[in-house]
Amino acid sequence: MDPHCGHSPAKRPEPKAINRALAQAEAGCKARGERWTASRKRVLELLLQAGGPVKAYDLMATFDESGAPAKPPTVYRALEFLEQQSLVHRIAGINAFIACGGDQQVHTAAFMICDCCGSAEEFDPNAESLTAMATEHGFKVEGLTLEVRGRCRWCADGATHEHRAA
User: Fold this and answer.
1) Any idea of the CA torsion for 54, 25, 146, 152, to the nearest 10 degrees?
2) DSSP assignment, residue 103?
3) Which of the residue ranges 5-9, 62-66, 90-94 would you say has the lowest mean pLDDT?
4) CATH number (domain holding residue 135)
5) 42, 74, 87, 105: which has the highest count of C-beta atoms within 10 A?
């Protein structure tokens, strides 16, 4: 990432939106017969608060509100569960995780990743042609993650943090 970037990459959601997302995640997991643990809730809460991609070790460092870091298995198990439940996506290109912005349970994970500020914005791509091409070649698609790298609209325009309210 460019150290000269003039704005913060993450748009932080409102506390009410975070609480609503946590409640929906808990209800969905319980409806599917899954356990909703304190560590799963905490990891999702940290990702929602970040409003952008977060590396696992950064989650470990901020996991305990008293300042004590979490053990790696605690965070990685929570991330694995949250990813299986389609609540979190792993962005392989930057080795980070982000709370899912999609409404449906299963969907194509697609991100526009800014190489300047590090932001990642989830979007809904038209993946039908990719899936059709794979099917033509006898390949059964079980998941699709698309990562588009470049500069976000603020970095491309050279805008400052104040212009990110959009």
Assistant:
1) -50
2) S
3) 5-9
4) 3.30.1490.190
5) 87
